[in-house]
């Protein structure tokens, strides 16, 4: 199954239902279910912003699964939609100037952690 490695706290925000878009500088034609891997990288500043949520931020493990339903170029219209959804969660995407793509995530489910080393881009996990 395909896997995408995502930094913390963003991976935990996704699997706990606070974030339904993931952002990349590259686009993808892939659509379908994939696993969410919490990478070893941690955005400590962002974790401080979300302390009030009392979430766990495991690293180096698969923590959820979801379905990628669309890949959109982040434009002013999408930035406005994200601002109205949650200005704190989507702050980075709203303020970026360079070209970026948004992966629309649906059917998000948290799973028990599976400890495995991550990789860049989409990668395959074989049980």
Structure description:
This protein has four helices and six strands, in the order βαββαβααββ. The longest helix has 11 residues, at about 75-85. It is globular. Strands 2-5-4-3-1-6 form a six-stranded mixed sheet. The protein is α+β, with helices and mostly antiparallel strands. The chain has a single domain, classed as Hypothetical protein (Archaeosine Trna-guanine Transglycosylase, Chain: A, domain 4, Roll), CATH 2.30.130.30.
N→C terminal distance:
9 Å
Task: Name the overall outline.
Answer: globular
The CATH H-level superfamily is Hypothetical protein
Radius of gyration: 14 Å
- What's the architecture, going by CATH? Roll
Q: What fraction, in percent, of the residue positions are helical?
A: 10-25%
SSE blueprint:
Elements: E1 2-8, H1 10-15, E2 21-24, E3 32-42, H2 44-49, E4 61-73, H3 76-86, H4 91-95, E5 101-115, E6 122-124
Parallel strand pairs: 1-3
Antiparallel strand pairs: 1-6, 2-5, 3-4, 4-5
Short description:
By secondary structure, this protein is an alpha+beta fold. 22% of the residues lie in helices and 42% in strands.
Task: Spell out the key features of this protein.
42% strand, six-stranded mixed β-sheet, alpha+beta, Archaeosine Trna-guanine Transglycosylase, Chain: A, domain 4, 127 residues
